[in-house]
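Researcher: We plan to redesign the surface later, but first we want a full-length starting point. Tokens attached.
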């Protein structure tokens, strides 16, 4: 198994400290704070540890409250709000320096039969016909300031293949829509709870930037203050994060220095396996000109 994938699996496995109390390790990724998908994944793992395996998570709603410090571990405190006949509810606070940096509520449910419908998966090229995002990043690496270049080029535990590759530094206004195939690039022998934790981790990649596309904005603009504000997911059926998944994102609205981003995640067979929504801060400080 690739080292970068092994490290991800290890960091998502939490250390139990006491009943309802867990500790998660962090790592530096070249960002100013901890990657939001890591905190969300660890918080969901903490909640899942307190729920029977036959009740998978079906939804989560979370808020990013403060920047995380990657020099310290994170303490996850689980509140067992309700254990019902069909649904189980958990609340998790992620704590550093004695303060909450992240708050998550998650609902778990027994599998039931019922009526079904879904949005059709777009007709797009399959992953084998598309270029790896790693190659695309290498082509534009010269645009990255030296202090951030190694982080920009580092190997990732998630492989992406964009349907329409774009230069991340292109400030030409574009439609707020994009699609990418992604997967954990190693076969994983893990339970469904861990698969959904991994999907939560992956879902934070490439989402918030969708709202920036019509405005010629990108994350390396010096005057741009960007951060995830909240994150919500709905899991529709069992998933495999180590098999190709298509992430279709769009942004219906940006206003008040915030942008709404939505995502649909499809398996290769066309089944809709998860839905995502996130609001992100995209504040341009004085002196930054929009394209």
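Model: Full-length starting sequence:
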């Amino acid at each position: 198994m690739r080292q970068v994938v092994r490290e991800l699996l290890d960091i998502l496995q939490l250390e139990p400290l006491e009943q309802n109390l867990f500790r998660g390790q962090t790592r530096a990724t070249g960002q100013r704070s901890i990657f939001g998908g890591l905190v969300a994944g660890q918080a969901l793992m903490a909640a899942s540890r307190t729920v029977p395996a036959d009740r998978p998570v079906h939804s989560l709603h979370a808020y990013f409250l403060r920047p995380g410090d990657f020099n310290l571990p994170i303490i996850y405190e689980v509140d067992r709000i309700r254990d019902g006949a069909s649904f189980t509810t958990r609340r998790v606070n992620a704590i550093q320096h004695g303060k909450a940096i992240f708050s998550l509520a998650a609902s778990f449910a027994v599998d039931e039969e019922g009526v079904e419908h879904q949005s059709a998966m777009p007709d797009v090229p399959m992953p084998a016909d598309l270029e790896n995002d790693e190659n695309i990043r290498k082509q534009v690496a010269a645009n990255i300031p030296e202090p951030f270049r190694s982080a920009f080029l580092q190997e990732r535990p998630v492989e992406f293949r964009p349907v329409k590759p774009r230069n991340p530094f292109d400030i030409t206004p574009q439609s707020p829509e994009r699609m990418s195939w992604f997967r954990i690039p190693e076969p994983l022998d893990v339970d469904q709870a861990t698969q959904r934790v991994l999907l939560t981790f992956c879902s934070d990649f490439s989402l918030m930037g969708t709202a920036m596309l019509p405005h010629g904005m990108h994350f390396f603009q010096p005057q741009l203050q960007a951060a995830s504000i909240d994150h919500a997911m709905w899991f529709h059926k069992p998933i495999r994060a180590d098999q190709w998944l298509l992430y279709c994102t769009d942004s219906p609205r940006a206003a008040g220095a915030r942008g709404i981003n939505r995502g649909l995640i499809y398996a290769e067979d066309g089944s809709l396996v998860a839905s995502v929504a996130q609001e992100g801060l995209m504040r341009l400080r004085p002196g930054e000109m929009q394209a």
